[in-house]
């Protein structure tokens, strides 16, 4: 009888899961078109935009044109549409019917998909580290590990934001798409191990950024289904919003007859390659707002004629405004990882528990993405060889041929080698910075990006400290009890994995020089890059582009540092925050936000 009841419970859970995921798997297009009627393909532009047409032209005009429907762009659009007409132009498609985006179990597959229509667009920095940028409505919230946290209070003060409005804007996001995770056993063992090695106190489940160990929020609900920034569009005024997908903006248009160049609109191409123009209304407060991310926004500015003179001249781009700081100060938080073997199966988990140390290092963990035969042969979730992760080959030697050789060798390793998970250590606020440069004038192509990982010795020292801490975490009794692995088993796995070039603890963990080389050779990314359009150099404190009218930037390209352990929560909040701020300045109390 007990077995029958247990089976019935499992069947009920499966049925609930199936019903909850049905809109994504069946008639996905119809589902989102019903819930989000304002989302259209770019080729439908003229027909879908007639309600916003100005009286004296055939062209549509809008109060706000947002370039990029990503992590900041979606909450920004939803907010501004409460009072004004808004056009969002997103170069990617919708996330709703994409199973690689929608489910935690497929997280690694979305990142490893390098096809032209993938939600993830790979790029390789000149440092040799393979990276990714989003190409989908909802932006990075569609392809990341889902972890949600607020920024530390120091960050909010440093950027000069209104703390009261910040504390109103975070909950607006959290109530709609953020969940408390069911803590995986792996994450529980990681939590106990962090506390065991002194990353204390334990702060429980919290969105706040506090020193110690905590459990944060997540985009994944209890069914493992992802909720993205695109879902924030459900709170928009549908009569005032148009969202075009597969709409690739090529440049911003300016009126240069006045003292300062004034944004007038944009040129974009649709999914068929046809060109379109969209314009702002004649109101001086109408704006083009760039929310293309830390890679896309500096690139868009330069392709539109705003940037360093040498950059524009080399590609014969007509200069609208010279600004030598566009594309400068690019930074990415370097990450290194340590593999943790187990002698027991572990469930898939992405980031749930984090350790916020006082030495400028963040500790995180993931597990279980090497369990299925598909994962064994293909990829490793957050640390996948196929997306350039996990290779101890120095970054600039990570050629496609080297990666394929890695994959081939990995297939020869026993199944047990890839049970377990990873301890991740990430440098907070790296001092090392780089730059972004155009390669050509094709917006579809990635620009050249340099991050200069570990160029500053302090960054390298913090990595050494982080790897030492990761080793202590793994050797903690809480992890060894959970994984049922003793130290000799770890050594055996190390020896076996060396020829497969898998990032593991170096054998001489007390040798500083060895650890420094390990950090340099095994550096990877967790996709928290930022900068390129800093406040005071490219934009003013209100994020308006210096020296222009009606042009603003709302995304992580304006950041000098990545906020909190993971930036997406603050970028989501930023979209809502700036939307409310703009509305209140234009309308006062009449904005009703």
From TrEMBL:
SUPFAM superfamilies: FAD-linked reductases, C-terminal domain, FAD/NAD(P)-binding domain. It comes from the Eukaryota. This is Glucose-methanol-choline oxidoreductase N-terminal domain-containing protein. The keyword Ligase does not apply. Belongs to the GMC oxidoreductase family. Residues 1-27 form the signal peptide. The keyword Signal applies. Disulfide bonds join 463-519. FAD binds at residues 90-91, 136, 249, 527-528, 556, 567-568. Its cofactor is FAD. One of its GO terms (molecular function) is oxidoreductase activity, acting on CH-OH group of donors. Keywords: Disulfide bond, FAD, Flavoprotein, Signal. Residues 293-307 form the Glucose-methanol-choline oxidoreductase N-terminal domain. Pfam families: GMC_oxred_C, GMC_oxred_N.
């Amino acid at each position: 009888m007990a077995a029958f009841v247990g089976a019935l419970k499992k069947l009920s859970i499966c049925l609930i899961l199936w019903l909850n995921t049905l809109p994504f798997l069946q008639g996905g297009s119809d589902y989102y078109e019903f819930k989000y009627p304002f989302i259209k393909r770019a080729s439908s532009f003229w027909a879908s935009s007639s309600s916003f047409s100005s009286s004296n032209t055939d062209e549509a005009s809008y109060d706000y044109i947002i370039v990029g429907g990503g992590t900041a762009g979606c909450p920004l659009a939803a907010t501004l549409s409460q009072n004004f007409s808004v056009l969002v132009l997103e170069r990617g498609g919708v996330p709703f019917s994409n199973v690689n985006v929608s489910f935690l179990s497929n997280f690694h597959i979305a990142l490893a998909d390098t096809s032209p229509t993938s939600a993830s667009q790979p790029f390789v920095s000149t440092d040799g580290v393979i990276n990714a940028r989003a190409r989908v409505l909802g932006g990075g919230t569609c392809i990341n590990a889902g972890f949600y946290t607020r920024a530390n209070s120091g960050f909010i003060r440093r950027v000069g934001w209104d703390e009261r409005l910040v504390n109103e804007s975070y909950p607006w996001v959290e109530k709609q798409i953020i969940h408390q995770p069911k803590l995986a056993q792996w994450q529980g063992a990681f939590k106990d191990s962090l506390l065991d090695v002194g990353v204390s106190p334990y702060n429980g489940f919290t969105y706040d950024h506090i020193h110690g160990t905590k459990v944060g929020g997540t985009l994944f609900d209890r069914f493992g289904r992802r909720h993205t920034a695109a879902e924030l569009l459900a709170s928009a005024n549908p009569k005032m919003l148009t969202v075009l997908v597969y709409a690739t903006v090529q440049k911003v248009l300016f009126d240069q007859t006045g003292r300062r160049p004034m944004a007038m609109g944009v040129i974009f191409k649709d999914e068929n390659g046809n060109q379109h123009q969209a314009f702002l209304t004649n109101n001086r407060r109408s704006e083009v707002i760039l929310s293309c991310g830390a890679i896309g926004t500096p690139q868009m500015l330069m392709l539109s004629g705003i940037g360093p003179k040498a950059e524009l001249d080399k590609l014969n781009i007509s200069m609208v405004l010279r600004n030598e700081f566009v594309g400068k100060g690019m930074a990415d938080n370097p990450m290194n990882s340590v593999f943790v073997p187990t002698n027991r199966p572990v469930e898939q988990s992405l980031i749930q528990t984090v350790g916020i140390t006082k030495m400028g290092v963040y500790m995180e963990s993931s597990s279980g993405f090497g369990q299925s035969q598909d994962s064994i042969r293909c990829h490793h979730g957050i640390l996948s060889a196929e997306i350039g992760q996990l290779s101890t080959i120095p970054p600039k030697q990570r050629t496609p041929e080297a990666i394929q050789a890695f994959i081939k060798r990995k297939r020869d390793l026993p199944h047990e080698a890839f049970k377990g998970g990873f301890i991740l250590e990430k440098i907070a606020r790296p001092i090392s910075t780089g730059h972004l440069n155009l390669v050509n004038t094709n917006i579809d192509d990635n620009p050249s990006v340099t991050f200069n990982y570990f160029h500053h010795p302090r960054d390298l020292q913090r990595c050494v400290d982080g790897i030492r801490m990761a080793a202590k975490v793994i050797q903690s009794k809480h992890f060894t009890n959970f994984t049922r692995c003793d130290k000799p088993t770890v050594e055996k796995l190390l020896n076996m994995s060396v020829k497969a070039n898998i990032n593991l603890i170096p054998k001489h963990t007390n040798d500083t020089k060895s650890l420094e080389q390990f950090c340099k050779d095994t550096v990877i990314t967790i996709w928290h890059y930022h900068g390129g359009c800093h406040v005071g150099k490219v934009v003013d404190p209100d994020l308006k582009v210096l020296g222009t009218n009606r042009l603003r930037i709302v995304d992580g390209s304006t950041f000098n540092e990545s906020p909190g352990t993971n930036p997406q929560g603050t970028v989501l909040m930023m979209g809502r925050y700036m939307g409310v701020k703009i509305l209140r300045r234009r309308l006062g109390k009449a904005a009703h936000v």
